[in-house]
Design goal:
Two copies of one chain form a homodimer. In chain A, 72% of the residues lie in helices and 1% in strands. Chain A is mainly alpha-helical. Chain A has one domain: Farnesyl Diphosphate Synthase (Orthogonal Bundle), CATH 1.10.600.10. The N terminus of chain A is likely disordered.
Chain lengths: 338, 338
C-alpha cells in the first residue's frame, strides 16, 4: 500500500478514527471488546495492539467526497464512521456465513468467540451506524441514513447471491457482476454519496460521485478476486489460492467458464468436483483461469471501470485538488496487493 | 388470547399489516419469502397460509400510544412497522443463536434455510426498520429512529447476557432482571415511546408511557418465563418444560436459587448437571421451582409490575378511552397463555 499517495486523506483519518472510537465505546461491555478486536485495536484478551485495521477505503471516500464537493469535511465525519461500521458489520456476518476463519492475519470473530457473539457484534455495528448518523444533528441526517440503509439492503442481496452461488455450478458472469454490484460497489458508492450529501453538495455532484463510487467498487471487486487467486498470502493475510480452495465463482472464474475455451471447460469440470483440493490442484486450477483468459480480462475490466469512474469525476464540478485525490484512490484500488 | 379485550387496537391492525406487507415487499427476492414465512404469511414454499403471526403487541402499543397522546394514529404506522421489524429481526437471530428449532408451531428460519439465510433475513429486517421510519417523512423521524436504535442496542445487550448465562451457574436474580430489561422491556418501552413521539406527544407524556412500557415489559418476561416452564405446549407452540430442558436461568429459576430454601439448593444441583433430561426429571425440576417459591414470586412480581405500569398511565394526561385500552393490554400480558 502506497501511503504517500493518500496523504491528504490521512489528514482526515484522525477525526474519523476518534469518532469511531467514541461510537464503539458506547456499545455494551460484552460486545465492545469484540468489535474493538475486529477493528484491530486490541487482541482477544482486550490488550491494546496495533493490528491491521483494514484500508478504511470507505471512510476515506466519504471524507474526500465532502472536500471535493466544497463542503466542510467535518460534517462528513458521522457518515465516514457509519459506512465503516456498516462495512465491518458485513465482514463479521459474512465471515460467519462463509466460515472464513482468518481475516487481516488474525482469527475471525466467530472463530474466537463463537457464532452467537459474531451475530450480536455485527447487529450492534449495523444499529450503531444509524445511531451515529441520526445523533449527528446534521440537517442531512435522514437522506444520509437512507443511503446507508439502501446500501445495506444491497449488501444483503449480494451476500445472499454469494451464498446461493456456493451450491450452484451454473453461475453466469452477469449474475456474478450483479452480486459484486451489491456486495462491494453499493457501499463504496454510498460512501462517497454520504460524504457529499452531508456536505450539502448539489444533486448533480452527488450523482457523479455515486457513479465514481460504483465503478471503483466493481474495479475493487475484480482486484479482490484476482488477489483471491494470485495474491501473496504474506500480504493478503489469506491462505494461498483461497478463493479456489472454496471453489468460489469469482469474476475471473465465471468469465473463464463462459470463454468457450478448452481451459474454461477443464475449469468447469474441476469446479464440479468436491473434497479438499491439494495445493498442486489449486495451482493447476489457477493456470486454467489464466489460460482461459480470466486473469487478463479481470485486469483489463478493472482498468476500464477505473477509467469510467474517472470520467464521472471529470464531468463533475469539483475542486481539482480533491479530484486528483479521488483519481489516486481509484488507482490505488487497482494497484493494491492486499 | 381474549381478542375481545383488544378490539380498538385491532381497528389499527389493518393499516399496520398493510404497511408491513409493503415494506417486506421491497426486500430482495431471495430474502422476502424467508421474512414472509417467519411472519406467518406463507409456508416454506411461498404458498400463502394463515399461520400464527405472533401477538403484534409492539405495533398495538405504538398505535395505542399515539391515540392515547391525542395524536393522529396514522402518523404512528411507520413506528408500529419499525418496532415489529426490530422484534422479528431479534427473534430470527435469537432462534439461530439459541438453536431453537420451533417457533409459533413451525420450524424456525435457520432450521428451514440454514444459518446464512437466518443471519441475512434478520439483518434485512433491522435495516428495513430504519428505512421505514426515515422514509415516513415525519418531522419526528429522527427521534423515533433513535428510540428504535437504542432499543436495538438494549436487545443485543440482553441477548448477550442470555447467551453468557447459558455457560454460567452463578447467575444472580439482579442480572437476570437486567437481562429481561434489555431483552424484553426495552423494545416494549420503545414501542409506546415511538408511537407517542410520532404523534408529537409532549415529553412528560412520552416519559410516562415509557415507564408503562418498561414495567409491562418486565411483567411480560415474567409471564414468558412462567409459560416456558408451565405453559401448555398445545398453546405456546414450544415443547413442554422447554426452558428447563435447556436449563435456562429464567426469572423464577434464579429467584428459587436465591431463596435459601432446600428446594432451591436441589434445583441448583440439578442445573449443574449436563445431558438431555428425561420428562420425569423436568417435572421434578419444575416442582423444585414451585416448592422454592419461584412460581408464586414470578406471578406476584408480574402483578406488581402491571400495577406500576398502570400507576404511570394514571399520572399521564391521556385520553381516558385509550388509557383503558392500555390498562387492558397490560392485563392481557399477565393473563395470556401463549
Amino acid at each position: 500500500m502506497t501511503v504517500t499517495t493518500l496523504s491528504t486523506v490521512d489528514a482526515d483519518g484522525d477525526a474519523v478514527r476518534s469518532a469511531l472510537f467514541d461510537a464503539v465505546g458506547r456499545l455494551d461491555h460484552a460486545i465492545r471488546p469484540v468489535v474493538a478486536y475486529h477493528l484491530g485495536w486490541c487482541d482477544e484478551h482486550g490488550r491494546t495492539v496495533t493490528a491491521d485495521s483494514g484500508k478504511s477505503v470507505r471512510s476515506r471516500l466519504a471524507m474526500l467526497a465532502a472536500r471535493a464537493a466544497g463542503g466542510d469535511e467535518r460534517r462528513a465525519v458521522p457518515g465516514a464512521v457509519a459506512v465503516e461500521l456498516v462495512h465491518n458489520f458485513s465482514l463479521v456476518h459474512d465471515d460467519l456465513m462463509d466460515r472464513d476463519a482468518t481475516r487481516r492475519h488474525r482469527p475471525t470473530v466467530w472463530a474466537v468467540w463463537g457464532d452467537a457473539v459474531a451475530v450480536l457484534a455485527g447487529d450492534a455495528m449495523l444499529s450503531l451506524a444509524h445511531e451515529v448518523l441520526l445523533e449527528s444533528g446534521s440537517p442531512q441526517a435522514v437522506p444520509a441514513a437512507l443511503l446507508v440503509g439502501r446500501a445495506t439492503q444491497d449488501l444483503i442481496r449480494g451476500q445472499a447471491a454469494d451464498v446461493d452461488f456456493e451450491r450452484r455450478n451454473d453461475v453466469r458472469l452477469a449474475e456474478c457482476v450483479d452480486m459484486a454490484a451489491g456486495k462491494t460497489a453499493a457501499l463504496l458508492s454510498a460512501s462517497v454519496a454520504v460524504g457529499a450529501v452531508l456536505a450539502e453538495a448539489p444533486p448533480v455532484t452527488v450523482s457523479a460521485l455515486q457513479t465514481y463510487g460504483s465503478e471503483i467498487g466493481l474495479a475493487f471487486q475484480l482486484v479482490d478476486d484476482l488477489l483471491g487467486i494470485w495474491g501473496d498470502p504474506e500480504v493478503t493475510g489469506k491462505p494461498v489460492f483461497s478463493d479456489l480452495r472454496s471453489r468460489k465463482k469469482s469474476l475471473p472464474v465465471t468469465w473463464s467458464l463462459e470463454s468457450g475455451r478448452p481451459a474454461g471447460r477443464a475449469l468447469a469440470q474441476w469446479l464440479a468436483q468436491s473434497g479438499d483440493p491439494a495445493e498442486s490442484e489449486l495451482r493447476a486450477a489457477a493456470d486454467m483461469v489464466e489460460t482461459a483468459g480470466g486473469r487478463r480480462w479481470a485486469r483489463a475490466e478493472s482498468g476500464r471501470r477505473v477509467r469510467a469512474a474517472q470520467r464521472a469525476l471529470d464531468s463533475a464540478a469539483i475542486d481539482p485538488r480533491y479530484r486528483r485525490e479521488l483519481h489516486r484512490l481509484a488507482d490505488f484500488i487497482v494497484e493494491r496487493s492486499a
